[in-house]
Design a protein that fits this description.
The chain is mainly alpha-helical. It has 8 helices and 2 strands; from the N terminus they run H-H-H-H-H-H-H-H-E-E.
Amino acid sequence: MERYIHVCDTISAWFGKAFAWSILVMTFGVGYEVFVRYLLRAPTPWAFDLSYLMYGTLFMMAGAYTLSRDGHVRGDVLYRLWPKRVQAGVELVLYILFFFPGVIALVIAGWKYFSRSYRYLEVSVMSPANIPIFQFKFIIVAAGLLLFIQGTAQVCRCLLCLKRGSWPAREEDVEEIEKQLLEGKIGAILAHGSEAVDVVVPDAVGDADPDRPRRS
């Protein structure tokens, strides 16, 4: 089961990181548009289409990768206080009742959307460039399939947590500062690199100047 989780995480990470380059394409397109529009007075007819197509592609294809890293927004005011097995049980029920039906509906509707667009070779109506966009409609289907695959890995994580009482370790990746603080990694955060950080340490009873910061 852990091997399957690792394979799914690897697939999601590969697609997420591969399509992350879309942000550079979008940045180049927007930067070029700003240059030619305001300096050369010759705006392009395609920059707007490029920006929303690249952003939409990045947003959709990064969904499974974000799920594999537990990076989606979660209302965890109460969740973080629950025992691990309770967390896993609640997540398992929510995946079965809401996640998989929603993802399956996304794939089915996305395929109908793509096939209809492909039949008449749809082009963008947002600009006079008439850029073909039917191929980008398949991103909806691809993103849904990736989410479904990653969702099965998340179910396996829940089952392992219910069995062991702890969540399986995730792949090493970037983490939010809040998560590191909750896990007690404050020392590593403050002592990063060779930078000096001033930390105010409570002085012992009787020390002079209690407001004086100490070097850590």
